[in-house]
């Protein structure tokens, strides 16, 4: 456990935590005990947990495996179904007896029940949502306190790997009895001019005393280190009541938040009683204008912005569902480098840090709360739908509504009974949308749809923006209601395996083979989906489309289309051959880019030089046979050379009705010979860059490349170390599959390992991993103290490599 008590000066620059001398936040990270299974007495203070496993939070109880070979690939073949208990001692000193004490949970999978000193304090029913509890009346201020949390995933349903347990952080917040409520400021900017912006702050204050409280509330807005606005107001708050107090401040010459300049302001809200500060609360916000137009899409600060978005699931590959801020930051950095400017939180309430990072990095967010209105949202037979909707929408919206990155609220994804108005579907839709608008009337709403003909029932009358998945299914809705903007909320669903290529090229996108991998020529997609180029072409031809959100940015655990259990059963192979993770990602499960990454980058970042050649050039069994070569480039033409012999120049065909001819350069007949491929790219006749690909010889050495060599000593920072096999000339060996052993000494631990192979059942928390098409990844987690970690990689017959990671 570590405590953070910030002086007021430091508060001005801190956006991650919100407290002052009077507000103490403790992150309950260490000191936890965990035991899977049923333990009827585990909530009791006297219970002996000394034999339980010691864990830190975040913790996903299933990611360590072992994999269930004949299990359901759709949920990752991991043992996430079950129940488990967590216990921890709480240090709550006697002086806190005059305070109020909250526990704020970012997310627990699933149906958590929270006990303090043997007494049930409360719980929640949606495993992806944040919630909080006031535990003050259950605290023993004269003795040690024991917190116990029961999580139970047995009623939870999922179409992907959900994880299990306390997979996001928990904070204990100690405040004065008169204080700003949890998520207690609502900040809007109703008037924005070039020379000023009015900032409206609606602050909710709680008075937990037995008498009315006269308070003065002070708001100060900072831009970086500079105070730019200040206002005060007074109020009387009745005993045991809360009260919302509105104040308007004016910022002169505001700097607008934008994807290219994500400027954030900091609001410090301080409550005074008897001229003394009793609570201080920090919020961040941005000043920006957003609007949708039916014929020209989305505008941010009066500038047209096309969504170049990706959908992201909540897991982090080898880390499972356990949420680490650095893991999310890395995902977003990789996506942003590709040209991505928007994220869809598919299909659940994201961790709060996701929104914080998007604010800081200039990424727009389509913020989605649910998948289906059933057990996938933890709605079961006994659930009161209206009560469930009100509580969960409130927490979702009130927690996230100050984030300038959020441009659209989604109340669900591909819900068949809602789209077809079965089982009171439209009533449920209206209920969800109304609650969103109650808590944030400033942003539009949507329902993500996939049933083309259901548009005839006009469910879009209940929400503001058309969001449709795949295959131009938006066309009927657009025809029936042309006054609403259109977003392709899931595009492509192209599938591929990093580093794997299969010949001949497919005649049809659904020509999947029994290889159990998908060729990285990027020509495959399920029947209901399309290749990436199709969505580029549709947006070129239909300018009213506001943009796309690719399914998906990263591979994720579960949903291994096409090689799931159902597909294999039809063909005869056993369940054990079903894959355990997806093929949809633009990058693989470990964050290593696939070829498709460079296709998107070439289109989404036209000013950044991209020249990417595929496939690899190691085909010893195809000498003299055809190996097609593709080039992804932001240029309009390229010339290809094999061993210094020109194979001709190809140019993109912008008028072609075949989408891949518009965005790729393809040499379909290349007789393979070992050596060197070189592509020189041109734009308007001028050379913009080149790329070289060589035939590698046998691997002789390993190479380790960490993304970071210095970590924070917080026990939660991460370094991702890429492992590669190299030949004697320093070329990547694209077919290497050597077993790699990893040894770590010093400060830190191995948090996870992987190689991007959807078929692999090697444990993520092993000390060894096989290279997959020449590459693998090890993830190092920092210690809670300063020190150095030495990571050594070895493999039989290869020269090893090592790197050091400093925790400082």
Structure description:
With 808 residues, the protein is mainly beta. The chain contains 11 helices and 45 strands. The chain has an 8-stranded parallel barrel. Helix 2 (325-338) packs parallel to helix 3. It is globular and about 90 Å long. The chain starts with a strand and ends with a strand. Residues 1-20 have low confidence and may be disordered.
Described by the principal axes of the CA atoms, the overall outline is globular
Q: Report, as a whole number of angstroms, the end-to-end distance.
A: 19 Å
β-strand number: 45
What profile does the largest beta sheet have? 8 strands, parallel, barrel
Give the amount of beta strand, in percent: 35-45%
Mean pLDDT: 96
| Cα Rg | 27 Å
Low-confidence stretches: 1-20
Proportion in helices: 10-25%
Q: Number of helical segments? A: 11
- Provide the structure class: mainly beta
* Strand adjacency order, main sheet: 22-23-24-25-26-27-28-29
Descriptive keywords:
808 residues, mainly beta, eight-stranded parallel barrel, six-stranded antiparallel β-sheet, 11 helices, 45 strands
Quickly describe the structure.
By secondary structure, this protein is mainly beta.
Task: Give the topology, please.
Elements: E1 2-4, H1 8-11, E2 24-27, E3 32-36, E4 53-55, E5 83-90, E6 100-105, E7 113-116, E8 119-123, E9 131-134, E10 145-152, E11 170-175, E12 178-192, E13 196-207, E14 213-223, E15 226-237, E16 241-252, E17 265-273, E18 276-285, E19 290-293, E20 297-300, E21 303-304, E22 307-312, H2 325-338, E23 342-345, H3 352-361, E24 364-368, H4 385-400, E25 406-413, H5 416-419, H6 425-439, E26 445-449, E27 466-469, H7 475-480, E28 486-492, H8 532-541, E29 545-551, H9 565-571, H10 595-604, E30 611-614, E31 629-633, E32 637-642, E33 645-651, H11 659-663, E34 665-667, E35 676-683, E36 686-694, E37 701-706, E38 710-711, E39 718-726, E40 739-746, E41 749-754, E42 768-770, E43 775-781, E44 787-795, E45 798-807
Parallel strand pairs: 22-23, 22-29, 23-24, 24-25, 25-26, 26-27, 27-28, 28-29, 38-45
Antiparallel strand pairs: 1-2, 2-11, 3-4, 3-5, 5-10, 6-9, 6-11, 7-8, 7-10, 12-13, 13-16, 14-15, 14-17, 17-18, 19-20, 20-21, 30-31, 31-34, 32-33, 32-35, 35-36, 37-39, 39-43, 40-42, 40-44, 41-43, 44-45
Helix pairs in contact: 2-3, 4-6
């Amino acid at each position: 456990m570590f405590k953070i008590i910030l002086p007021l000066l430091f508060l001005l620059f801190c956006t991650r935590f919100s407290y002052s001398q009077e507000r103490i936040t403790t992150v309950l990270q260490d000191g936890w005990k965990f035991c899977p299974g049923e333990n009827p007495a585990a909530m009791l203070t006297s219970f002996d947990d000394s034999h339980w496993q010691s864990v830190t939070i975040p913790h996903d109880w299933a990611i360590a495996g072992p994999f269930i070979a004949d299990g359901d690939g759709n949920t990752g073949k991991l043992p996430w179904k079950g129940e488990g208990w967590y216990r921890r001692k709480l240090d709550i000193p006697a002086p806190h007896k005059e305070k109020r004490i909250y526990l704020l949970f970012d997310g627990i999978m699933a149906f958590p029940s929270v006990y303090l000193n043997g007494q049930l304090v409360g719980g929640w029913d949606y495993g992806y949502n944040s919630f909080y509890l006031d535990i003050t009346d259950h605290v023993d201020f004269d003795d040690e306190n024991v917190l116990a949390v029961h999580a139970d995933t047995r009623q939870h349903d999922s179409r992907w790997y959900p994880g299990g347990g306390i997979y996001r952080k928990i904070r204990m917040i100690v405040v004065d009895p008169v204080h700003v409520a949890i998520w207690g400021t609502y900040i809007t900017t109703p008037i924005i001019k070039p020379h000023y912006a009015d900032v409206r702050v609606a602050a909710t204050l709680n008075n937990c005393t037995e008498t009315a409280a006269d308070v003065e509330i002070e708001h100060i807005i900072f831009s970086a280190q500079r105070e730019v606005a200040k206002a005060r107001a007074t109020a009387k708050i009745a005993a045991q009541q809360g009260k919302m107090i509105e104040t308007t401040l004016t910022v002169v010459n505001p700097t607008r938040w934008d994807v290219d300049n994500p400027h954030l302001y900091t609001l410090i809200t301080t409550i005074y009683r008897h001229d003394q500060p009793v609570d201080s609360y920090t919020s961040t916000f941005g000043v920006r204008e957003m609007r949708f137009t039916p014929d020209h899409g989305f505008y941010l600060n009066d500038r047209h912005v096309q969504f170049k978005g990706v959908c992201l699931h909540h897991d982090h590959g080898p880390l499972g569902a356990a949420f680490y801020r650095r893991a999310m930051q890395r995902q977003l950095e990789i996506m942003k480098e590709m040209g991505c400017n928007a994220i869809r939180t598919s299909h659940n309430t994201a961790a709060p840090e996701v929104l914080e990072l998007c604010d800081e990095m200039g990424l727009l967010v389509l913020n989605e709360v649910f998948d289906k209105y059933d057990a996938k949202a933890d709605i079961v037979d006994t659930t009161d739908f209206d009560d469930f909707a009100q509580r969960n929408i409130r927490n979702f919206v009130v927690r996230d509504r100050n984030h300038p990155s959020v441009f659209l609220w989604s109340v669900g994804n591909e819900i068949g009974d809602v789209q077809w108005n079965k089982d009171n579907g439209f009533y449920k839709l209206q209920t969800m949308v109304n609650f969103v608008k109650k808590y944030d009337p400033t942003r539009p709403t949507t329902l993500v749809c996939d049933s083309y003909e259901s548009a005839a029932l006009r469910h879009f009358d209940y929400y503001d923006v058309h969001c449709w998945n795949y295959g131009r299914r938006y066309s009927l809705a657009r025809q029936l209601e042309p006054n609403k903007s259109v977003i392709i909320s899931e595009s492509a669903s192209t599938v591929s395996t990093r580093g794997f290529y299969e010949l001949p090229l497919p005649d049809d996108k659904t020509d999947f083979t029994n290889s159990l991998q998908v060729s990285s020529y990027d020509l495959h997609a399920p029947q209901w989906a399309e290749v990436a180029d199709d969505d580029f072409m549709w947006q070129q031809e239909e300018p009213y489309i506001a943009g796309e959100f690719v399914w998906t940015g990263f591979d994720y655990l579960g949903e291994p289309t096409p090689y799931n259990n159902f597909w294999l059963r039809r063909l005869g192979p056993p369940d054990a051959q079903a894959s355990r993770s997806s093929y949809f990602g633009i990058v693989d499960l470990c964050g290593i880019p696939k070829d498709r990454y460079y296709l998107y980058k070439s289109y989404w970042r036209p000013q950044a030089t991209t020249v990417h050649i595929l496939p690899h050039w190691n085909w010893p069994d195809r000498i003299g046979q055809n190996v097609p070569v593709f080039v992804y480039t932001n240029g309009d033409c390229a010339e290809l050379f094999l061993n210094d012999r020109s194979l001709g120049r190809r140019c993109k065909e912008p008028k072609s009705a075949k989408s891949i001819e518009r965005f790729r350069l393809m040499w379909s007949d290349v007789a393979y010979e070992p050596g060197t491929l070189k592509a020189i790219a041109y734009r308007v006749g001028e050379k913009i860059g080149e790329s070289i690909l060589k035939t590698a010889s046998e691997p002789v050495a390993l190479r380790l490349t960490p993304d970071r060599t210095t970590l924070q000593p917080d026990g939660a920072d991460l370094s991702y170390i890429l492992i590669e096999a190299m030949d004697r000339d320093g070329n990547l060996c694209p077919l290497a599959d050597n077993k790699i052993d990893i040894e770590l000494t010093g400060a830190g631990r191995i948090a996870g390992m992987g190689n991007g192979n959807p078929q692999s059942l090697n444990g993520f928390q092993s000390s060894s991993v096989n290279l997959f098409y020449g590459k693998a990844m090890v993830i190092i987690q920092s210690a809670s103290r300063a020190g150095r970690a030495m990571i050594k990689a070895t493999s039989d017959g290869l020269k090893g490599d090592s790197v050091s990671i400093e925790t400082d």
